[in-house]
């Protein structure tokens, strides 16, 4: 015969079947629903249709004054979940609404403390497996809440790591367009067509040095390795473009038209 436990709750009787963990402790739902002033049949159908609540629901034969009766029970770890599905603002009866809020605020906590409060307080009498079972439901909920709160921070950190991390032993290769290299070296005074002429010159420089000319994904613009750019702007023709030499300089030493070239491998 199933042994029932009855707990007083603000003048009502909460009926439960004790288990060794919240997920194995079963709460008789008709008494709770009717104690709140709600329609049990409507709530029974909701529990049976719900993909999560239905997994924690079961039918138990329990003794009553009229003999054995089949009662729908819900595991204690899902009781708060079910309570949260009830919206007090949709209840017109003020008395029922207040009762619902009272149950949502205290019911699950009262049941948990009744079955596990003393056990937790006297934790030295429990083995590690028992303590783990008692805390499993509560810690699981806390973990989900913390993860939800920290998720944006984790996403930002992951994005930062993706943009900065490079595998050990692999050189960091930086490619930029001619325009970006001009920005990098501070060449702000640019005659019309200068970026194109620099791009052509960097293309020839890349071929001479054995570096591949890459292309941007969206605009298909040529990009050049930093070693090629450094050579061009420090000891090559591009040194005349640097800010100290560009003033009054008319001849840039660059060919006005591109020369055909073939892709070279790095």
Describe this structure in words.
This protein is α+β, with helices and mostly antiparallel strands. Helix content is 47%, strand content 15%. The chain is built from nine helices and eight strands. A five-stranded antiparallel beta sheet has the order 1-2-3-5-4. It is rod-shaped, with a radius of gyration of 37 Å. The model is unreliable at 245-266 (pLDDT under 50).
Termini gap: 81 Å
Q: Profile the largest sheet.
A: 5 strands, antiparallel
Residue-averaged pLDDT: 75
Share of residues in strands: 15-25%
Order of helices and strands: EEEHHEEHHHEHHEEHH
Secondary structure category: alpha+beta
Broad shape: rod-shaped
Q: What percentage of residues falls in helices of 4 or more residues?
A: 40-55%
Q: Give unreliable regions as ranges.
A: 245-266
The count of β-strands is 8
* Gyration radius over CA: 37 Å
Number of alpha- plus pi-helical segments: 9
Question: What is the strand arrangement across the widest sheet?
Answer: 1-2-3-5-4
Write the layout of secondary structure elements.
Blueprint (H helix, E strand, L loop, with lengths): L4 E5 L2 E6 L8 E3 H8 L3 H10 L7 E8 L2 E9 L3 H6 L9 H28 L6 H37 L10 E3 H7 L9 H16 L4 E2 L6 E4 H9 L8 H4 L20
Antiparallel strand pairs: 1-2, 2-3, 3-5, 4-5, 6-8, 7-8
Give a quick set of tags describing it.
266 residues; alpha+beta; five-stranded antiparallel β-sheet; 15% strand; disordered C terminus
What's the gist of this structure?
With 266 residues, the chain is of the alpha+beta class.
């Amino acid at each position: 015969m199933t042994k029932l436990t009855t707990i007083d709750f603000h003048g009502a009787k909460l009926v439960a079947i004790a288990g060794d963990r919240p997920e194995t402790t079963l709460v008789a739902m008709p008494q709770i629903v009717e104690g709140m002033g709600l329609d049990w049949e409507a709530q029974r159908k909701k529990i049976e249709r719900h993909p999560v609540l239905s997994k924690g629901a079961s039918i138990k034969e329990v003794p009553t004054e009229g003999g054995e009766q089949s009662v729908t029970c819900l595991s204690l770890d899902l009781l708060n979940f079910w309570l949260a599905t009830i919206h007090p603002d949709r209840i017109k009866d003020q008395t029922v609404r207040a009762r619902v809020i009272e149950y949502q605020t205290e019911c699950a906590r009262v049941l948990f403390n009744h079955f596990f409060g003393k056990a937790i307080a006297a934790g030295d009498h429990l083995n590690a497996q028992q303590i783990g079972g008692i805390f499993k439901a509560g810690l699981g909920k806390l973990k989900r809440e913390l993860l939800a709160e920290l998720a944006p921070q984790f996403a930002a950190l992951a994005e930062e790591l993706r943009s900065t991390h490079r595998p050990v032993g692999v050189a960091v290769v930086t490619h930029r367009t001619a325009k970006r290299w001009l920005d990098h070296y501070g060449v702000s005074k640019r005659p019309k067509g200068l970026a194109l002429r620099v791009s052509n010159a960097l293309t020839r420089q890349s071929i001479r040095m054995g570096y591949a000319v890459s292309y941007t994904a969206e605009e298909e613009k040529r990009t050049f390795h930093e070693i090629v750019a450094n050579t061009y702007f420090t000891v090559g023709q591009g040194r005349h473009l640097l800010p100290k030499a560009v003033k009054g300089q008319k001849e840039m030493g660059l060919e006005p038209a591109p020369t055909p070239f073939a892709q070279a491998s790095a």
